[in-house]
Amino acid sequence: MKHFALGASTIALLTSLVGAAQAEDVTAWRVFVSDHKESVVHVLDALTNEEITHFDVSGPATLYRSLSGATVYAVQGAAGTVTAIDSGIRFDDHGDHADIDVSEPRLTGFSVHGESPSHFVEHNAHFAAFFDGEGIARVFSESAALEGEAEFSEVKANAPHHGVVVPFGEHSIVSVYNTEGEGSVAGVQIIDGNGNPVGNVVECAGLHGEALSGNLGAIGGCQSGILLISSAGGQPKVEVLEFTAGLGEGRVSTLLGGRGLQYFLGNWDADTVSIIEPGAETPYRLVDLPTRRVHFAVDPVRPRFAYLFTEDGTLHKLDVIAGAVTASIKLTDLYSMDGHWSDPRPRIAVAGDNVFVTDPLAGKIHSVDAETFEENGEIAVKGKPFTIVAIGGSGVLHGGEAHDHADDHDHDDKIYQGYFDDSQISERTLADWEGDWQSVYPLLQDGTLDPVMEHKAKAGTMTAGEYRAYYDVGYQTDVDRITIAGDTFTFHANGQPMEARYEGDGYEILTYEKGNRGVRFIFEKVEGDAAAPQFVQFSDHAIAPQDAHHFHLYWGDDRAALLEELTNWPTYYPSELSGDEVAAEMLAH
Questions:
Q1: Do residues 363 and 381 make contact, with C-beta atoms less than 8 angstroms apart?
Q2: Cβ atoms of 65 and 87 closer than 8 Å
Q3: C-beta of residue 364 within 8 angstroms of C-beta of residue 385
Q4: How far apart are CA 396 and CA 284, in angstroms?
């Protein structure tokens, strides 16, 4: 596995060495660090600890990264500006492999302005920056930010206040200010695309803090629990998850969402944190800390862990499943929680195998090995390094301008990665998928694909066993063979064939969490066996007519529900290939 040097000249050199038809496993990690006092954002190579570049901005910033990792946002409260930064790292997960593209980080030219920006929320690759002084959120897409386009919409609350807007497709969830008396946040209101209220205000006195984990959102600050946001029929649904008896006195007003595991990590009181698992028999669990909490972060690479920093200068490793601190290490001098809330104090970010902790008063960043939990380095940074976010991972780098995936896909690189214009999409017929196809699920079960999982583990962030478990969910199906001839499908499930005729029913464009898109080509049953599904939906990374060399297939009787399915994607390769040949095709990626 190659560790990727991040300079532009090195990128060009590596590309020339790889060649147009070859590929390299590449790892790239970057950390973006703001300064507590100065108007600057530093970009560091997390593998070499060297500074790549820095960006001058309009004021001291709080940093946020997008779920995709394509963008970083500098929210500058005093300067009234939110600035977009292109991280220069792109990933595209194709189910059976992931690609990486690395370029120089840059200011995209996109920014939004207003009075006192504060809460910054992402949902489905759309962002809402709430400007407290105006009571307005400016909402924009990641693609607009990357392209430098000054395109945004506005969602208005009922009054200026320290509030929040969660974008949710055509709807928004907006904090509501109680203007009576001294005034406070009363709860949230769902509004539609025209600004009309949907349903009643969901009460949440003291509302503060928000996070997303998988398909659930959460808003904190309520006196009796937290608010959970889910989807019901394509519209947002907000309900209270009540605090359980016996928790004692506390409040969840800061939230983070788990990655890989669905949970929320929140505060409770000064020296206690809460682990919140909606749907669990015990949805709230508390973990006591030795001293007051300064900051916490979840681990996107090792999903069962999170990290907590306490005012005595100690970093703690929290096992979320066990609900216990499993390791601690002293890193800095005392950072008392007495004083102003905005005083410079450490912040945490996870970059691959390391946990980074800023030490603003010492002008450095500490690096801790996530496995051994021993300090393995320091990075000197000018000024007072403060908020920090990390972006990176491992993937396959394809050399040259042609993006050959070794399976004869002729689509260009950007389309394959899910970045395309609507005008590039064309209707497709079943002729693109005509043939005899085998499910790869039996090959996963019988061990034929073990070399593929081991290869992924060498370049990725999980063990071979964890990759096998992930693909066990993705590939799972009892339809082990499909034949397509003309407009006729024959599904072979458990030794029994089902046959039906299908006709085109258009396509749907899906936008994924990280901002890229995909197209599902849909066909509806017109006659045939009752047991055959009413709809089939193809996904093969192409957006216009061409012969497929493998594909993911979704089927069922509810067209809309199928579009929500993103975790199970039965995958098919030509039946003429042996198991070893299928594995070889995957390894060629």
A1: yes
A2: yes
A3: yes
A4: 40
3-state secondary structure 281-312: CCCEEEEECCCCEEEEEECCCCCCEEEEEECC
Rounded Cα distance between 379 and 402, Å, is: 38
Strand, coil or helix: 99? strand
Give the Cα separation of 109 and 148 in Å (integer): 5
What's the rounded Cα separation, in Å, for the pair 509 and 422?
9
Do the bridges between strand 435-439 and strand 479-485 make them parallel or antiparallel, or are there none, so unpaired?
A: antiparallel
- CA-CA distance, 556 to 572, in Å (whole number)? 17
Closest to 509 (Cα-Cα) out of 519, 522, 498 = 519
Q: Which two tokens stand for residue 126?
A: 């759309």
545: left (phi over 0), alpha (psi -120 to 50) or beta: beta
Distance between CA atoms of residues 19 and 170, nearest Å: 44
Identify which of 314, 318, 286 has the alpha carbon closest to the alpha carbon of residue 299: 318
Residues 192, 172: Cα–Cα separation, whole Å: 7
Q: For residue 343, give the 3-state DSSP assignment.
A: coil
DSSP state of 408: -
Yes or no: say if 254 and 276 are a contact pair by the CB < 8 Å rule: no
* CA distances, 81 to each of 56, 419, 529 (Å): 13, 28, 60
Report the C-alpha gap between 46 and 89 in whole angstroms: 13
Q: Of 272, 270, 377, 268, nearest to 331 (Cα)?
A: 377
Tokens 């790549």 label which residue?
52
Q: 10 Å Cβ neighbour count for 162?
A: 17
- By CB atoms closer than 10 A (0-12, 13-18, 19+), residue 334 is exposed
Q: Residue 579 and residue 448: Cα distance in Å, rounded? A: 6
Closest-CA residue to 345 (of 384, 392, 389, 290): 384
Q: Cα separations (Å) of 238 from 155, 229, 231, 359, 432?
A: 18, 5, 9, 38, 42
Cα 36 → chain centroid: 27
CB-based contacts of 531, cutoff 8 Å, min separation 6:
498
539's enclosing H/E stretch is: strand 535-539
CA atoms within 13 A on the CB side of 479: 23
pLDDT along the chain (589 residues), means of 10: 33 36 74 98 95 97 93 97 96 66 94 96 91 96 88 94 92 92 85 93 93 90 94 84 94 92 94 95 96 96 94 97 97 95 96 96 97 96 97 73 35 68 91 96 93 82 81 91 96 92 94 77 96 95 91 93 87 94 84
Q: What does the DSSP 8-state code read for residue 458?
A: H
From CA 39, how far away is CA 577, in angstroms rounded?
58
- Strands 210-213, 435-439: parallel, antiparallel or unpaired by DSSP? unpaired
pLDDT at 323: 96
Radius of gyration of the chain (CA): 25
Structure tokens at 32: 């973006």
Q: What is the pLDDT of residue 181?
A: 66
